[in-house]
Design goal:
It is a single chain. The chain has 151 residues and is mainly alpha-helical. Helix content is 83%, strand content 0%. The protein is built from five helices and no strands. The chain has helices spanning 4-25, 31-51, 62-83, 88-115, 119-150. Helix 2 packs antiparallel against helix 3 and helix 3 packs antiparallel against helix 4. The model has no long low-confidence stretch (mean pLDDT 87).
């Protein structure tokens, strides 16, 4: 069944996944980084807000809880940039990098809701895919943080 809010949510998620990956893979602090990063932040905010108008499990669900976590992560990642507090760059990097990892973890949940029909299999499939994504994300975040702090 087609839903306008569902379509917009999908659109925001695709743009966020692409721009998040571009920001992660490119040089930090450039004008390009800032422009693409701003597109990422705006789309993530719209993605999170739109999620509250989608109800697949008859009301507030674990997916809405993680949308709140995602929203907090985005805001926590942008706050140090705006305030320029002590260690702002590290705080910004960690929160925004985990925001992208969280987005890709959420992708697995979305795939699971579309393709796994048995709820028991759904939870296992999503848990394993999410764990692997978070594990790899943690590895690359730590690896790149070392490069960032050496500059």
């Amino acid at each position: 069944m087609f839903s306008t809010i569902g379509f917009l949510h999908l659109l925001f998620s695709i743009i966020s996944m692409i721009t998040g990956l571009i920001v992660i893979l490119n040089t930090k602090g450039t004008k390009f980084h800032k422009k693409v990063g701003n597109v990422y932040v705006v789309n993530m905010l719209l993605l999170n807000i739109s999620s509250f108008f989608i109800s697949n499990f008859n009301g507030f669900s674990i997916f809405h809880f993680f949308a709140i976590v995602s929203l907090i992560t985005i805001l926590a990642g942008m706050y140090p940039v705006l305030k320029r507090s002590e260690n702002w760059l590290q705080k910004h990097y960690y929160f925004m990098a985990w925001s992208v990892v969280g987005l890709y973890c959420a992708f697995w949940s979305e795939v699971g809701t579309r393709f796994v029909k048995n709820m028991q299999d759904f939870w296992w499939a999503v848990a394993i895919a999410t764990f692997l994504t978070a594990f790899l994300g943690n590895y690359f975040i730590k690896k790149n943080a070392k490069k960032l702090t050496e500059q």
